[in-house]
Amino acid sequence: MQVLTPATDKSLKEILESVVTAGEVQDVKVRGYRVGGKTGTAETARPDGAGLSGYTASLVGMAPWTILNTSC
Fold this sequence. Notes:
Layout: H1 6-21, E1 36-45, E2 52-62
Antiparallel strand pairs: 1-2
């Protein structure tokens, strides 16, 4: 079953890799490997549940790029 077209697969990988090569998370680069990532931000609820108290940041990383197979 093909999940993504080859063109979409290539575009998606380029976008996710640019998060690491040119974006805000360049600290996760790994010399010798192509790495991709997706960042996220969520509002954090106050402990008492009465509103919001801040933000939680997250990053999902993918590496090494050469073994990722998104176009099964």
